[in-house]
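> run fold Regulatory protein, gntR family
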Amino acid sequence: MSEAAYLQVARDIREQVSSGQLKPGDKLPSFAALCEHYEVSNTVIRAAMLLLKAEGLIDGRQGKGVYVANPLPR
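> ok
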């Protein structure tokens, strides 16, 4: 059985952040653009975003979009 779609999307975005492709403060594409890119539904993108937000990797700003969060000091 393959991994759930939202986990694949979350992992891909996580890898883009860890590789430096996406940097803290970068704005993520719109939900519509992400749906198109990953060929998934809005529900899948929302689930992936909730997961990444819970991990502290992204920061949603109402009416502004979703951004890569600044890493927490260790």
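Strands lie at 58-61, 65-68.
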